[in-house]
Design brief:
Radius of gyration of chain A: 16 Å
Oligomer: heterodimer
Largest sheet of chain B: 2 strands, antiparallel
Shape of chain B: elongated
Strand order of the largest sheet of chain A: 1-2
Distance between the termini of chain A: 16 Å
Mean pLDDT of chain B: 93
Number of strands of chain A: 6
Largest interface: A-B, 75 and 55 residues
Distance between the termini of chain B: 24 Å
Mean pLDDT of chain A: 91
Low-confidence stretches of chain A: none
Strand content of chain B: 5-15%
Radius of gyration of chain B: 18 Å
Chain lengths: 117, 78
């Protein structure tokens, strides 16, 4: 396919993956523990209070544990295809977390870069 | 099947209580209104240096020197 994959989350390094996964996964899973990069990419948001209560009290998702005490901050889920100059050639970012970029679209963007278009 | 089709199928098969669906919808709208829309096509991706899963430093600019990169922002392992 001719591209490396880097996955960024706001989780503390210890929470990104289990030990076995850490050593078996062929991609880089990086930790933005200060949210600095999420902000630079304009993807950062503070979890709205009623969503926080829903996640914590109904879904059992406690971001204090994953991201650090009081750090209820997340990225809008996003995927970007960058060419060798670091320019965004295709991407999807949507505050509705059920909207994700299709693999076919990623491959088409990579193909277009490969062909020098 | 495309990922978007799989997600649509998954959502169609789930009964989400109306009050939870309404809360989620308000949340999505409030995040959208905050202006967190990400990068535009044609824009240069900001460089970063972050530790990976085994504590090794990853610098985007260094990785781009070897070719294209697919960069994914996700909320977490949960």
């Amino acid at each position: 396919m001719g591209a490396d994959l880097i996955a960024v989350s706001p989780e503390l390094p210890d929470y990104t993956l289990t030990m076995a996964e850490k050593h078996n996964i062929p991609i880089d899973v990086v930790s933005d523990a200060t949210s600095e990069v999420l902000k630079k990419y304009r993807l950062w948001f503070s979890v709205p209070q009623e969503i926080k209560e829903l996640y914590r009290d109904k879904f059992g998702i406690n971001l204090d544990k994953h991201n650090g005490e009081g750090r209820w901050e997340l990225p809008v889920p996003a995927t970007y295809v960058l060419d060798g100059q670091g320019v965004v050639r295709a991407g999807v970012a949507d505050s509705d977390h059920t909207v994700r970029m299709d693999i076919e679209e990623i491959l088409a963007a990579l193909e277009s870069i490969r062909e020098g278009k | 099947m495309k990922l978007s089709e799989q997600i649509a199928q998954f959502k169609a098969g789930r009964q989400i209580p109306p009050e939870i669906a309404a809360t989620m919808k308000r949340g999505v709208e409030s995040i959208r209104a905050s202006g967190a829309a990400g990068l535009q096509v044609g824009e240069r991706a900001p460089d970063f240096i972050l530790p990976n899963q085994v504590g090794k430093t990853v610098r985007l600019a260094d990785r781009l020197a070897s070719g294209p990169i697919v960069l994914s922002f996700y909320r977490g392992e949960w």
